[in-house]
Amino acid sequence: MAAPLSSPPWESSNLADASKKDIVAYIHENATPAFLRLHKLNGKPASIVKAAKKDALDAAYVALIAGGDDVCRKEGEQLAMDAIALEKEADDAAKKAAADAAALESAEKPAVEAVVEVPKFAKQVLKKGNGERPKKGDTVSCFYTGYLPDGKIFDSNNDPKKKKPVPLTFKVGVGRVIRGWDEGLLTMSKGEKARLVIESEWAYGKKGAPPRIPPDTQLTFEVELVRIE
Length: 229
Prior knowledge:
The protein is an alpha+beta fold.
């Protein structure tokens, strides 16, 4: 077997004409195991021909020719290609076994079922908005009137007797108001007016808000979202 430096089969002028199969065969016949590993050409030639790109093989061939004795096997030196192929196959098999084990471990873990909380309010749209909805943390302004179950008004900032009622302004979705308001207003859009019927758990709960709101009381609000900042 001739050393690569003495009789390279292709020059830069005709390397493009060489097939991937021939380049791989030549490199395998002449390169050291370290060179093959460095250029990821250790393994079965047929697999390398299928997977490698032509420009990468061309570059490896040029590096082999230019590298001289440091990368070329000595005349008559036996390269254990089967051993190199087996080494790569063993490495691939180990990686596959590790991946299979990880997949099996994941499959054996009990699935965590997501718990979806049922909203504790109902909404009726009284007037449609412009489609722009607030996000958590946005500052909103709204007019509202709150009703007890018997229809009695317990709170309002929209008294028609006042010449210039002032809207309530707060950051929505961050716990500044009762949860029924936080959740309900996030479903509304600017300009929308809606009726929110809020169960006691998302209103004032077991304590209520004495003296106006008794414990465990469902509340109804007519809310108009007038501004989002």
